[in-house]
Design goal:
By secondary structure, the protein is mostly helical. 67% of the residues lie in helices and 11% in strands.
Length: 129
């Protein structure tokens, strides 16, 4: 592994795990899945994430998530030089590929939830005093 100067400690330790954390983070998953459908302006994306997750993402968290995914090459930020400023977010080819994988995992999770719930109950019952 090559370590560049100025990189964060997390990147020095395991860059693969760091990218995986970005893609599978709470808000990263929702951003990727939302942008898979179409491009969004910031406020539209924030509302869409709130609608599907039933929890509002703060402006700060959404900004950080978008910047992280942009840095990783998954999100494209298109700032138009107009007044008022207009910024659209969309997926790059790499981001679209990641979104497909995340969506597959989300579908598997939904499909497997009953089995997971049963497994948890069995586990808890065997550990109960």
């Amino acid at each position: 592994m090559t370590v560049s100067k100025g990189s964060s400690r997390g990147e020095d330790m395991c860059p693969y795990r760091l990218v995986l954390e970005h893609v599978t983070s709470r808000w990263g998953v929702l951003v990727l899945i939302a942008l898979e459908e179409r491009s969004y302006r910031f406020s539209e994306l924030r509302r869409e994430i709130g609608r599907v997750s039933e929890r509002n993402v703060s402006e700060k968290m959404l900004t950080q998530t978008l910047q992280t995914l942009e840095r990783d090459g998954m999100v494209h930020r298109d700032a138009k030089p107009v007044i008022p400023p207009r910024v659209d977010y969309s997926l790059t080819d790499l981001g679209r590929e990641a979104a497909e994988q995340v969506r597959t995992l989300a579908i598997w999770t939904e499909r497997s939830m009953e089995a997971v719930t049963r497994a948890r109950s069995t586990y808890d019952e065997t550990r109960a005093p």
